[in-house]
Amino acid sequence: MMSIPQPAFFMFKCQQSAPPGMPKPSCVSESNPESKELMQHLSMTLMQKGIIGNVQPIQTGCLGRCLQGPVMMVEPGHVMYVQLTKEKITRIIDEHIIGGNVVEEYVIPEQMWGEPIDPASQAK
Ligand code: FES
User: Fold this and answer.
1) Topology of the domain comprising 12-84+97-109
2) Which of 7, 43, 51, 72 could form a Cys-Cys staple with 56, CB 3.0–4.6 A?
3) In this structure, what are the phi and psi dihedrals at residue 39, rounded to the nearest 5 degrees?
4) Where are the domains of the chain?
């Protein structure tokens, strides 16, 4: 029996938008007009390159790194990209998703993205 292949990648784009007047920054905001176009740019570029579906763009809420926004997490790999622009997203698709090389210069700094804590060590 033929199986349906799982997506090769999921690209979780934070689409959180803070209400006006909210002091906390958010990944989609009035103060950064390009931030409102990034999700569409991501989907359109995947479509134009013929890889949408195999690569699945997902809109998410806050991923907890608002100060570094706009952010997007790529799975597999737990790769968190920060301070995104359209240009950076295109490069991430070309070099990481198609080319197989993480675009290190757009990855969140290590001090902001330490090793995860094993939930088994925390569970009550
Ligand atoms: S608003 Fe995007 S990470 Fe928090």
Assistant:
1) Glutaredoxin (3.40.30)
2) 7
3) -65, -45
4) 12-84+97-109
Probe residue for ligand 1, chosen from 66, 67, 73 as the CB with the greatest number of ligand atoms within 8 Å:
66
- Kindly give the number of the ligand 1 atom that is closest to the alpha carbon of 68: 3
> Contacts for 45-50 with beta carbons within 8 Å, 24 or more apart?
45/89, 45/90, 45/93, 46/11, 46/93, 49/93, 49/98
The pLDDT score that the predictor gives to residue 21 is: 78
Measured CA to CA, the distance from residue 11 to residue 29 in angstroms comes to 20
| Residue 19: per-residue pLDDT | 79
pLDDT attached to residue 22: 80
Between the CA of 62 and the centroid of ligand 1 the distance, in Å, is 4
Residue 51 near residue 98, CB atoms below 8 Å: yes
CA dist 115 → 32, 77, 106, 112 (Å): 30, 13, 18, 10
Mean pLDDT of residues grouped by 10 in the chain (124 residues)? 93 92 88 96 98 98 96 98 98 98 97 95 96
